[in-house]
Fold this protein.
Amino acid sequence: MLDIILLFLLAGFSTTLIAAFMLTIFKKQIAFNERVNKFFAEPLKKQKDDSIEQKNKKSIKKSIDIYWSKGTEMLSKRVSKDERKKLDMLLRDAGNPFKSAIDFRLFQFVLSAGLCLPVFFLILPSSDNKMLTWMMMLTLAMLGFRLPIFYLGKKKTARIKEINVSMPDFFDTVNLLLEAGMGLDLALLEVSKKIKGPLADEFFQTLEDMKLGKSRREAFYALRKRVPSDSFQSVITSLIQADQLGIGMAKVLGNLTVRIREQRREAAREQAMKAPVKMLFPMVFFIFPSLFIVILGPLVITLITKGLGG
């Protein structure tokens, strides 16, 4: 037994000694091969893996696009013109986050099915109360159908708020360019290039409409119709009237920016006045009970344990 152990130790020592000897001899060649692999083989392998991954992603995307286009073709025959018009208005007010009204409606159906089908296949077969499960599926389907509309409403509110915030600086810059001698269309184009956002996108669309043959008045009417903001619509109305009457745009924009800032100041004051009313319910339901527990808790414990005589 001892001879076998010594034999194994001798074999291990010999192997280690030979490996160290070979590593010393071929040290430069090993270092050269490692550098070659680092700078040439690994990037090629990574590029090959990336290309395979991109091909897989493209194939998946292509198959999704094919089925999506088939769904839009089938759905376009069933959506009425009035319903499509309403959806177009919702999408327009939200900044067109979807390609078309048909795509939005198809997304509603897909989301509704994606929420209720897992319940149908996973929970319904093993459920004891089938009626409750069907009610759950119906609720999830309705929720999935209504969530995109709620999302459009939130997008519309955020878009209007962003437009109202960027209006003073935008029109101030346009006013400066007008006072410098630049025309209104060119001033709007230059400012829209510099200041990014939904307001600049809307003016880009207006200038494109004017290039396609619309008059300034018609393009501004379409712009006022696209943006559901009262302050913005009043500004565009003033610009249309000034263009019709031949009043200087610089003077009109100067007065408009002053009025916009006053409206924002009044809106901030209004929100500040609403703050105490909004804080009332959280204070009554969350803050006051905690204060009462901290202040009156020891007294109540004392009365319970010792009574009034304690």
